[in-house]
Amino acid sequence: MEIFCSTRRLVLRRFTAGDADLLVELDSDPEVMRFLTHGRPTARAEIEKIILPRFLEYYTLFDGYGHWAALEKETGDFIGWVSMRPRDGDPSDEPELGYRLRRDAWGQGYATEAAQVLVDKAFAESGARRVFAETMAVNAASRRVLEKVGLRYARTFHREFEDPIPGTESGEVEYELLRADWEQQRRNR
Ligand SMILES: CC(C)(COP(=O)(O)OP(=O)(O)OC[C@H]1O[C@@H](n2cnc3c(N)ncnc32)[C@H](O)[C@@H]1OP(=O)(O)O)[C@@H](O)C(=O)NCCC(=O)NCCS
Question: pTM, whole model, 2 decimals?
């Protein structure tokens, strides 16, 4: 197991080629996918041929950025993933934060705990200038996590979707944290 880092209750490790089943199961819960696809699961073929290979390739491109499998220290159970990485074509010092956890792990502060360590590492170790995240405006839990790790609301915007899902009409929100603000927050912790 290639460990990226640990938090108080979690281990974040690299994904491996053998992790397709974990991702298939995670994305098969309609509640997990509610604000992503309106509950539609991700096809196994997409996970095996596109998503997981992309996760793995990423480890070879950027040290310190990528998607990480989150495991509960106490049980060793996979609870989902968290991510920090620049989008394709974006500057390498502007990574995006993301997370997707199994429903049985929600409401225990796990997303906040994992996201906080990724934000701290992005600024302290990977030279980030700005960390940002996007979510549907109606995704209250996701917005709350962003606020709890110090990101601030930046803007609301509207994307065109061929097949919009409920809540699309309220738009997407972007949150961000700049290096100087992170430094200030860290001093105040
Ligand atoms: C978003 C997600 C990662 C949050 O994970 P989590 O481990 O439950 O998050 P935390 O426990 O760290 O924090 C959640 C916060 O949101 C709050 N919250 C949860 N549901 C809420 C709701 N419907 N309305 C308002 N606040 C809500 C919680 O009370 C908590 O805030 P608090 O600590 O101030 O009480 C999880 O719900 C998830 O994986 N959702 C599906 C995937 C997804 O939507 N990902 C984001 C896509 S951009």
Answer: 0.97
